[in-house]
Every structure is written in C-alpha cells, then in structure tokens.
C-alpha cells in the first residue's frame, strides 16, 4: 500500500486538517445557484412586508389624528338627522285686544311601520307561544288610540293605516299633548310630531281680512311641515307671525334620512315664537257690519256687496266686509280664490265720483255753494247725449243742488269750467288709479285712463263716475279726505306688532296728501249735507233715507252702469249702487263706504244703499256714544 502512487494515495496521505479544509471548500464551491436566489427573494418579501406595515401604520395614525372628527360626523349623519321644531305662531288681535286668530299646541301621531314590523316579527319568532306579533300589536294600538280620540278617528281607519305597505305613515292630527303622551307611554312605537292648531274663534268674523293658515303636509320631508299663511294677513304677514323654527336631532332608520325612530328626539336649539299683530279692526263693529251687509244684499237680491268703515282723521279701518266670507275653521269653505273683494275688485262707481268736481269747483273759485247755473235736462258730449236721471227742462240749480240732486248735466257743465288738466290733477290727488297701501294682499289700484289717451267722450264719462274704476276702499278714502279738512291719510288695518319679548313696534306712519284746502273741504262737506235733506217743491236730496235723527250727515249716492258681459256695452239693468257718508258732518268721526253689486230694485227704496248707511250709522253712534249735533243741518235751496 506504501508503494501506491496517484491522486488517491496522495489524498489519503494528507493530514486530517487538510482534508477537512478541502472538504468545506468543496461543499461551498459545489452549492447550487438556486439556493442563493431563494434567500434573496425571502429577504425582499420581508422588506416589502415591513414597508407595507409601516405605510398602514402611518395611514392609521393619519386617520386617527386628522380625519377622526370628519369620519365620526359622517357616521353620525348616517344615523341621525336634524329637523325643525315649529315655532309658536303669533296671535292676531283686534284693536281692543280680543283674539281673532291664535294657535293651540297639539301633536300629530306617527308610526314607523317598517321598524314596528321588524321588532314584532322578531318577538313572535323568539316567543311564538305568546301569540304576540305585528298584527296583534297593531290591533291593540288601533283600539286603544281610537278609544282615546273619539270623533277624531276610528279603529278601522287606524288599522287601515297600520297595514299600509309604507315604511312610515301619519295616524291622527290635532291630538292634545297629554293624550299623545298617554298613548306613547302605552305604545312606545308610536311617534309624535309637535304641531299647532290654528283657531279662529269668530269663524267668518273678519275672515277676509285675517285669511287662513294651515299645516302643509304634502311634502315627504317632516322638516317642511310648517304652519304657513294661505291668504289674508296670515299670508302677507307670515314672516312676522311665523317666528323662527328651532332644531331637533333625531335618529333615523338605517338607509333613511326621514323615517324617525320614536323616542330618539333631542332638542338642539329652541324655537322663537312669532310676533302678535294688533289690528285697527273693532270685532263688534266688524260683526255688525258683516251682518247688516249680508242681510241687505239678500233683501235687495244683489249679486254681492262690500262695505268699509274708516276713522275720518287717522285713516284706521274699523271694519271691512264682504257679504260672503270664508270660515277658516272649516277647510270645506276655503276657496281657491280667497280674495277680499273690498280691496281686490274695482267697479265703476257712478255719482259718488262727483265729489271730485265739487272739490275742484270750490278750490278753483269756479263756484260757491249758493251760486246758480242754468241746467238743461240733457247735454251733447262728442258723439253721445248725457241725460239726468229724471226728465226736466232747463232749471236754475244751485251748486249745492247739482250735487244734492246728482245732476249729471250740471256736473259736466261745472267740469268743463274746471278743465281737463285740472280735473286729471284732482283725481290724482284723491288717489284714484293708485293702491291705497292699506297692507292687505291683492289690492287693486283701480283704473283711470291716462290723460294722453282721453278722447272726446272721456271727459263726458269721468265726472259722472263712468269710464274709470275704484275699490270701495278707494271710494271711502276720497270722502275721508273731505272729512279731514282736505288731508287724505293712507288707510291702514294693522296698528302694531307685539314682539315675543312683549315690546311693541308701531306700524310706519301713513302717508298723507293735502288734496284741497281745509276751507274747500269744509265747504264741500257742508254742501253734501243736502243729499240727505228732505224738503218741499223739489228741494229733497237723493238720500233722505240715509239721515239719522239727531246727527248731521253728509254723503253722496251713486248709480254706475255695469258692462253687460254678453254685449260688451253698458247695461240698462245692471248697476253698481254706491253710497259714501260722513258721520257726524259737523264734527266728523267716521266715514262709511258701501257698494252693492247689481241689486234688482225690489226694495221700497229701489236702487239705493241709503237705508243700509242709516242702519250702520245708527250702530256707530250708539257704540261710540257720539255726541249729538248741536243743531240739525239747515235745509237749503237746491233748485230756484
């Protein structure tokens, strides 16, 4: 064996340490290349995981630090919503503090049907032996609620609502709060919303002035179910009356922002009550005027009528009436058009408009009350002839007689002396063709032809009250100016606003216009006393029936032809019957304006509103204890 040569022998002949060194080196040299690349991938994956975890950690820190509040709010918003808390609506009062409209707090019962079905279906599955399920619970609730609210709903009506396929439904309106609380204590799944029932204790009393207000339930969003004005002052002054809603946080069913979960309400901000309105209206006088007007319209077979009573100095409206009125307590009586015809419906007034000629003639020195003028029975004006209401030859009328007997011809002769421009200027000063600014919705300005558009016949119509239109309020306003020494005061019907803190805010002072001098106004007022005088030998005025014993009365009758809707021409049978009067004439306190729409003349007085004025004036004198006139009005000559 010692003699062997070659690699094998040489290998065996090396020291052990040399062999170990060789063996390790050999193994390292012989290791496969795949093992190295595997270890590299493991290291890369481990590094990537560390990077991803670091990024996730940073994102978590960012979310928790910078986005936590926004995310929390977003999550809360998905579970809750904010709805309005209705404000207490202000009261409307008359001039003496009597309530004409006020609100009573009520509740509207609701039910979340989806949640109720879910809860009671789950209860039935957990305890089927109890026999309780959604249907039995609904039956119990319907029976209990109907017993608590007799006359408002029935068990059958409630069961029909409980079995609707809807997620939510309203059950009953106008429930007293204590009753609603008792129902909810018995059945926690019943929800309720705060409401206010608007009450009108006088029914139709002043309803055309007040209007109406009601809940708007046609919007699916409960926050928009507000008590809002629908007509009259309830509508026009809604911002003052309505107040400012509060805010309430409620939990809503998942996936819904409107179906509230009962019992989850939490107030965030209280509501601010609305302001009260104090009117210039006297409730007792308003009732009397409505009653007398309605009765007289029925007796005279008129199509309708309107009337107004104003303070002669302040322009405050004490009463404003139409013969037909709504009852805001009765939804069935509410019209789609709830207009107040006394301010919205103009008409051709007839001879009450002759006050303009009387004022202009005296103001411009064209005539005096006693001056005379030959007045024929007819007068040619452009292409047509104007007649007086009675046949007569040429007669010497006093200026007072022209207006006391309401001579069309005499009025036109005076108007010609006044001139078209001066007459047009006087109409403007009296407020014709302009809204009065009373503060009621839908007021009409009436109609006066522009001066530039006058034709030959225009000045034959205007002085006798044809060819122009006005409301009964505008008509009364002309006589208020004469009663107030020539100063026309803008009428108003709201006196003040009473704020929630009890403070008062007076309405802005009314605008005024000096129409004629005080001397002219007093002269015209005294001339018009002859309208109600009863004399002999043709010296009676047109309205002795308007006279009131113990008081001097100034006034003017009117008969305006209406346009026949079938022919488009003036009718010989349809008339506007008017009267404007001042009480007492020697110390004016009130002005009354009346319009009757096409009475048929069946009353003994025929086509006249004078008896109605007499009755209204009698009540005014009694209610306000007006002092008797110092002496009766003198009987003056009208025709010489």
Automatic annotation (TrEMBL):
The Polar residues compositionally biased stretches are 511-520
Low complexity bias spans = 13-37
Q: Write down the InterPro entries for this protein, in alphabetical order.
A: Beta-lactam/transpept, Beta-lactam/transpept-like, PBP_dimer, PBP_dimer_sf, PCN-bd_Tpept
- Does the record's keyword annotation contain Protease? no
Q: Which GO terms describe its biological process?
A: cell division; cell wall organization
Q: Where is this region: Disordered?
A: 1-37, 242-273, 323-346, 498-520
Penicillin-binding protein dimerisation domain mapped to chain residues: 85-253
- List the Gene3D superfamilies hit by this protein, alphabetically: 3.30.450.330, DD-peptidase/beta-lactamase superfamily, Penicillin-binding protein 2a (Domain 2)
Q: What segments bear the compositional bias annotation Gly residues?
A: 1-12
Going by the UniProt record, its keywords in alphabetical order are: Cell cycle, Cell division, Membrane
Q: Does the keyword Acetylation apply?
A: no
Q: Name one GO cellular component term.
A: plasma membrane
Q: Which domain of life is it from?
A: Bacteria
**Pfam family, any one:** Transpeptidase
Q: Penicillin-binding protein transpeptidase domain spans which residues?
A: 305-617
Question: One GO MF term, please?
Answer: penicillin binding
Cellular location(s):
Membrane
Family membership noted in the UniProt record: Belongs to the transpeptidase family.
Name under which the protein is recorded = Cell division protein FtsI
- Organism from which the protein derives: Amycolatopsis antarctica
């Amino acid at each position: 064996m010692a003699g062997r040569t070659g690699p094998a022998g040489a290998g065996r002949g090396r020291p052990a340490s040399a062999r170990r060194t060789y063996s390790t080196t050999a193994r390292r040299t012989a290791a496969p290349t795949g093992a190295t690349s595997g270890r590299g991938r493991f290291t890369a994956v481990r590094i990537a995981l560390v990077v991803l975890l670091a990024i996730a950690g940073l994102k978590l820190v960012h979310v928790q630090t910078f986005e936590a509040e926004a995310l929390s709010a977003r999550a809360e918003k998905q579970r809750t919503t904010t709805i309005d808390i209705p404000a207490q609506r202000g009261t409307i009062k008359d001039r003496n503090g009597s309530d004409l409209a006020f609100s009573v707090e009520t509740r509207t019962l609701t039910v979340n049907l989806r949640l109720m079905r879910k809860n009671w279906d789950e209860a039935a599955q957990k305890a089927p032996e109890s026999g309780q399920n959604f249907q039995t619970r609904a039956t119990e609730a319907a029976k209990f609620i109907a017993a608590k609210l007799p006359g408002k709903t029935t068990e059958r009506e409630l069961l029909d609502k409980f079995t609707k396929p809807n997620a939510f439904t309203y059950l009953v309106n106008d429930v007293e709060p204590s009753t609603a609380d008792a129902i909810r204590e018995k059945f926690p799944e019943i929800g309720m919303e705060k409401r206010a029932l608007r009450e009108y204790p006088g029914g139709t009393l002043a309803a055309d002035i007040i209007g109406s207000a009601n809940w708007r339930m046609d919007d699916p969003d409960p926050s928009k179910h507000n008590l809002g004005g629908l007509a009259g002052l309830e509508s026009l002054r809604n911002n003052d009356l309505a107040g400012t809603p509060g805010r309430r946080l409620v939990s809503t069913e998942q996936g819904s922002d409107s179906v509230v979960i009962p019992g989850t309400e939490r107030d965030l901000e209280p509501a601010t009550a609305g302001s009260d309105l104090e009117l210039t209206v006297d409730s007792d006088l308003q009732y009397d005027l409505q009653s007398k007007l309605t009765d007289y319209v029925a007796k005279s077979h008129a199509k309708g009528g309107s009337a107004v009573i104003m303070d002669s100095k302040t322009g405050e409206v004490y009463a404003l009436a139409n013969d037909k009125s709504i009852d805001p307590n009765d939804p069935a009586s509410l019209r789609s058009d709830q207009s107040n015809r006394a301010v919205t419906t103009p008409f051709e007034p007839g001879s009450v408009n002759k006050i303009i000629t009387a004022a202009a003639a005296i103001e411009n020195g064209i005539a005096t009350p006693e001056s005379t003028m030959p007045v024929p029975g007819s007068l040619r004006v452009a292409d047509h002839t104007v007649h007086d209401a009675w046949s007569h030859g040429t007669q010497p009328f006093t200026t007072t007689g022209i207006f006391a007997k309401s001579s069309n011809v005499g009025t036109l002769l005076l108007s010609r002396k006044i001139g078209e421009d001066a007459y047009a200027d006087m109409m403007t000063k009296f407020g014709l063709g302009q809204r009065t600014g009373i503060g009621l919705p839908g007021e009409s300005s009436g109609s006066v032809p522009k001066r530039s558009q006058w034709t030959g016949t225009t000045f034959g119509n205007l002085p006798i009250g044809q060819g122009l239109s006005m409301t009964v309020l505008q008509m009364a306003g002309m006589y208020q100016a004469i009663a107030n020494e020539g100063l026309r005061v803008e009428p108003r019907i709201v006196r003040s606003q009473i704020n929630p803190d009890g403070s008062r805010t007076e309405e802005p002072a009314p605008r005024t216009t000096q129409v004629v001098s005080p001397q002219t106004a007093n002269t015209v007022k005294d001339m018009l006393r002859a309208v109600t005088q009863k004399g002999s030998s043709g010296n009676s005025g047109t309205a002795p029936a308007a006279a009131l014993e113990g008081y001097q009365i100034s006034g003017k009758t009117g008969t305006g032809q209406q346009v026949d809707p079938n022919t488009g021409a003036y009718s010989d049978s349809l008339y506007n019957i008017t009267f404007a009067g001042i009480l007492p004439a020697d110390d004016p306190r009130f002005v009354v304006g009346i319009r009757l729409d096409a009475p048929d003349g069946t009353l003994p007085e025929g086509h006249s509103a004078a008896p109605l004025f007499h009755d209204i004036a009698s009540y005014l004198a009694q209610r306000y204890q007006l002092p008797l006139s110092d002496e009766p009005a003198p009987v003056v000559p009208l025709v010489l």
